Each structure stands twice: as C-alpha cells, then as structure tokens.
Amino acid sequence: MKQSFNGNLILEPYKKTRQLEEHQAVTGFSMTKQKVGVEGLVLLVDASVDSRYFSKGTVFYFKEEDLYTKPWARKILENEEFPDGFVVGEMKDVIFVEDNND
After folding, report:
1. Hey, how many other C-beta atoms are within 10 angstroms of the C-beta on 44?
2. What is the pTM assigned to this prediction?
3. CA-based, 20 to 30 A from 75: which of 14, 25, 83, 101?
4. Using alpha carbons only, what angle is made at residue 86 by residues 83 and 87, rounded to the nearest 5 degrees?
C-alpha cells in the first residue's frame, strides 16, 4: 500500500494546454482568455492529511489558474509506476473534494 503524508497529494498531472488561449473581442482586438475554471485531478495513492484519510481515486478540485501558475502543478515528476508522471499537490490549494467512497 502506498500512502502520502504531510499534506502532500500525489495527483495525475494537469493535462490541459499550458499555452495562453486567445479570443477575438467585438472591437477586433485579440485578448487573452482568463483561466477561471475549476479542474479536478485524481489522487494516485492514498493520502493522510490533517487526520483525514483520502483513498486512491478521490478527485481534488483546484482553480485552473493555480494549475497553470503554481510551481507544484508545473513540475511533473516521473516514476516507473506512473508512466504518465505525477505532481505533488498541496492541500492548501484544494477548493473541494469528490470522494468516490461517499
């Protein structure tokens, strides 16, 4: 059994593009789209955070802007057990949680 501690969340990497998106304004000027959504990342290993237990598969939701700008979200680590890589998320950035066991 794998388990993370100290508020570390072993999550799948953010998969959406990290490029700035543009849209045409009515005036004809091109403007950068804001990252205002909320995105869910799946927990890859069990985690113990602040005396609460989260099982693998739980979805943690973050502001899209945080997933685009926070250093932890941009640093994709590699391991033979996680061929697509993983990120070490921080509990303080979590907006809400969807526990699949509820």
Report:
1. 21
2. 0.78
3. 101
4. 165
Cβ atoms of 35 and 68 closer than 8 Å: yes
Please report the pLDDT score of residue 98 as a whole number.
93
CA distance 63 to 16: 13
User: Does 17 have pLDDT greater than 70?
Assistant: no
Q: Which residues pair with 102 in a beta bridge?
A: none
Residue 37: its pLDDT value, please? 84
| C-alpha dihedral (89, 65, 58, 2), degrees to nearest 10 | -20
State how far the Cα of 91 lies from the Cα of 95, in Å rounded to an integer.
9
Q: What is the pLDDT of residue 27?
A: 62
Amino acid at 65: E
Q: Copy the structure tokens of residue 25.
A: 């304004």
For residue 39, the SS3 value is: strand
At 45, the amino acid letter reads: V
Number of domains in the chain: 1
